[in-house]
Design a protein that fits this description.
Blueprint (H helix, E strand, L loop, with lengths): L1 E3 L5 E3 L2 H4 L24 E5 L4 E5 L2 H12 L3 E6 L4 E5 L2 E5 L3 E5 L4 E6 L7 H16 L3 E5 L4 H11 L9 H10 L4 E2 H8 L2 H14 L2 E2 L12 E4 L3
Parallel strand pairs: 9-10
Antiparallel strand pairs: 1-2, 3-4, 5-8, 6-7, 8-9, 11-13, 12-13
Helix pairs in contact: 2-4, 4-7, 5-6, 5-7, 6-7
């Protein structure tokens, strides 16, 4: 494994000796940029879960960072904080997974985002090696493709209201009460007050999953059924 430690120094160690490192808090092992020959968009996502920024180097990666920000199981996320290296018949091969996540129960997940194109032999070989290495230290490993159009569109909309400034505590309490048994979105909003004033808090509560709706079935609308969540 190669990584930049909390001391700011570069380290190379065997995984079984360094797996307890807080990789979710470390810097990328290399500058973010679109891979050679690929079109991409490099940027930073304000990760509301922690208030930090997480880098991405494609629109698809950005969408998954957004999804993990929404995921209550993910408590911290880092972009490319470690690099795997292993010996093969072709010599030493390396692979830098796209993301490292720390989960609510203290376990970890390493994730790659599929590029949406054919992969070369080395790209095809790396996941098996990395998954085995992760399993050996109790980490999960995932390769994710694109999210559904409806879910992506809904999360993009709700993410615009993820900042705490969108929360009005008094209206939030009323909304939790109104939607406790389930109601259509605009019906419940109008029972609390002027939609222009109330909607930002509704969307913030949906982002935090204090309120819930089906984000996969269709774009969020006035008739979407909203219910109380678990928080």
């Amino acid at each position: 494994m190669s990584f930049t430690g909390t001391d700011g120094q570069e380290h190379t160690e065997f995984l079984d000796r360094c797996w307890m490192q807080p990789f979710e808090s470390l810097k990328p092992v290399r500058p973010l940029s679109p891979a050679h020959g690929r079109r991409g968009f490099v940027g930073l996502w304000w990760f509301a879960t922690t208030g930090d920024h997480v880098g991405y180097q494609s629109w698809r990666e950005r969408d998954h960072v957004m999804g993990w920000d929404f995921d209550l199981e993910v408590v911290r996320l880092a972009s490319r904080p470690l690099r795997f290296a292993w010996q093969s018949e072709r010599g030493v091969l390396t692979h830098t997974p796209a993301f490292f996540a720390r989960l609510h129960d203290g376990t970890a997940m390493v994730a790659d985002v599929l590029p949406g194109r054919a992969v070369d032999d080395e790209d095809a070989t790396a996941p098996g090696v990395v998954e085995q290495a992760c399993a050996a230290v109790g980490w999960g490993f995932r390769r994710v493709a694109g999210m559904s159009e409806a879910r992506t569109a809904n999360l993009r909309w709700l993410s615009g209201y993820r900042h705490p400034r969108c929360l009005h505590p008094a209206r939030a309490a009323d909304l939790v009460r109104v939607f406790a048994g389930g109601a259509e979105l605009m019906e419940g909003v109008r029972r609390v007050g002027d939609p222009i004033a109330v909607l930002p808090t509704v969307f913030h509560l949906l982002w935090r999953q204090v309120l819930r709706t089906d984000l996969d079935a269709a774009p969020l609308g006035a008739g979407s059924l909203v219910r109380g969540g678990g928080e």
